[in-house]
Amino acid sequence: MPTVIKDKACIVGVGGTPQGRLPEHGADDIAIWAFQLALEDAGIEKSQVDGLLVQQSFGGGGDIKNVGRRLGMEPTIASNISHQGEAIIMAASLITVGICNVVACLYGTNQRTNRNRFGHTSYNLGGNLNDVYGMSNPGAVAALNFRRRMHDFGATQEQLGAVAVAQSKGASMNPMAVYRDALTIDDYLAARYVIWPLRLMDFSMISDGGFAVILTSAERAKDFRKPPVYVHSIGAQASFLDMEHPSAMYHPSQVPNAKMLWESSELKHKDIDAMYVQDAYTPNVLSALENYGFCELGTAHEWIQGGRIELGGDLPVNVNGGQNRMSYMVGWHNTFDAVQQLRNEAEERSRQVPNAQAALCTYSSGQWRETWSAIYRR
Amino acid sequence: MAYDKPMPQVTELNRLFWEGARRHELLVQRCHPCGHMWFPPLPNCTRCLSTDIEWVATSGRGTVFSVIVYHQGWLPGYKEDLPYDVAIVELEEGVRVISNIVEIEPERIEIGMRVVATFDDIDEETSIPRFKPA
Q1: pTM of the entire structure?
Q2: Cβ separation of A140 and B9 shorter than 8 Å?
Q3: Strand order in B53-57's β-sheet?
């Protein structure tokens, strides 16, 4: 079980490019740019990196053959991984078993500039069955989910709005955030519906940008210039059953994932200073709070009220602004921000979670194909 | 007016479903050895991995499991038809299918509402199953 990798690997470097629109750069340019920033942060040369993991970009780019060729490196391991969580799991595992000493994980995309469209996304072996019924945009899954929550648990749209409001507060203090205006609940409720019951501010943006994370072993970490952030505990669970058909509500595959995560740690929920949720759509935040055990199933829409998930609240969630306010970086922005928070180096001091010791990062792909979580600690 | 929404792409995997729809039957797949039923179609049973699969007619009756209303459109035909609904219907047989509920305003569709299949005859070869209040 994952206790083997507990605290064995550390994040010793992170890099993040500007976010939003980077029309002068291709996806691989951006990934390499982020890598350079992470090398600088770690205080090492690229020749010291012996593991290279790259996530391919939606809309093209990120092929390990191309990125590896351009980097002029000869790492022990060079591979494409399918998401940020897998990058952290693979890196920590390679380091723990001693196959690699220093692993760099990269992601770059220019899908905003490329006008990548998720509107037609449909995973379906059976042909265009979803398109025939007008079911486009992966946000439909989140909308069906939240509509069911309204029925099952009496959730209201105004309650859901607390997610976007909280994240906008963090984004308003985050220099890297694409949308920096702080929203009120009235702003949220005045926004147009995209797919009822979800509004514009419940949907992730599409943006250009890149992030890189460099990991090494706990023993080697002292040789790096920044304090290490430990990969303390990991949870994961794949779920293919609902890929084509979103009938399982509330992301149930996160439950065994969370069990694995907490069983590998002595930390409790109260020890988590900041939480990050892959919020392609805001209802994902509600499910994650429930499935990772911060509140009971069917109560998160009430639990988040009163500023509880805002900066200064009991459990700040997505204090970077999340994907609907900061940038659409499929979880990479969350590990980046968690590391900054745990190093006590949030650029805008008002955005720093005071004395942050542990952060929980969670990920679920839009179609629930895979879920992942990690507790990082300083 | 000509039907301008996406037409079914008939493949070897879904051909019998669309042929059934043309006869105004709503079919799902059933595993012959283990009895597992599912939709959308797959080449094998996900429970026992058998490829001995048959298409069986359902009652066409079910209830609305969840429903959403599009206020922004991406697909041809639907873009011009806003707002429109997409629903998950749970059939009496237990299988859940994606569809549209017709003959009712989108905002009046409730979870738990009883619905029954209705078939839109698009042309000589194609009928698209949808649902209407039962």
Answers
A1: 0.95
A2: no
A3: B37-38, B27-31, B53-57
Domain segments of chain B: what residues? 15-133
User: Which one-letter amino acid corresponds to residue A155?
Assistant: A
pLDDT of amino acid A364: 83
Q: Where in chain A is the domain with CATH 3.40.47.10?
A: 1-113+208-226, 135-201+232-378
Contact B71 A244 (CB under 8 A): no
Among the four given CATH numbers 3.40.640.10, 3.40.47.10, 3.50.30.30, 3.30.780.10, the one describing domain A1-113+208-226: 3.40.47.10
**Which of A140, A196, A245 minimises the CB distance to B40?**
A245
| Per-residue tokens: B15 | 């051909």
Tell me the three state secondary structure of residue A41. Answer: helix
**What mean pLDDT is reported for chain A?**
93
Per the listing, tokens 């090398």 go with A39
Phi then psi for residue A151, to 5 deg, are: -75, -50
Give me the sign of the Cα torsion angle B24, B30, B36, B42: negative
pLDDT at A118 over 80: no
**HEC profile of A269-338:** HHHCCEEEECCCECHHHHHHHHHCCCCCCCCHHHHCCCCCCCCCCCCCECCCCHHHHCCCCCCHHHHHHH
Mean pLDDT within A116-133? 73
- The pLDDT, as a whole number, for residue A122 is 53
User: Average pLDDT for residues A92-102, to the nearest whole number?
Assistant: 97
CATH superfamily of A135-201+232-378: Thiolase/Chalcone synthase (3.40.47.10)
Closest-CA distance of chain B to residue A315, Å: 30
Selecting from A120, A126, A192 the residue whose C-beta is nearest the C-beta of B74 gives A120
The reply to whether A125 touches chain B by the CB within 8 Å rule is: yes
Structure ipTM: 0.97
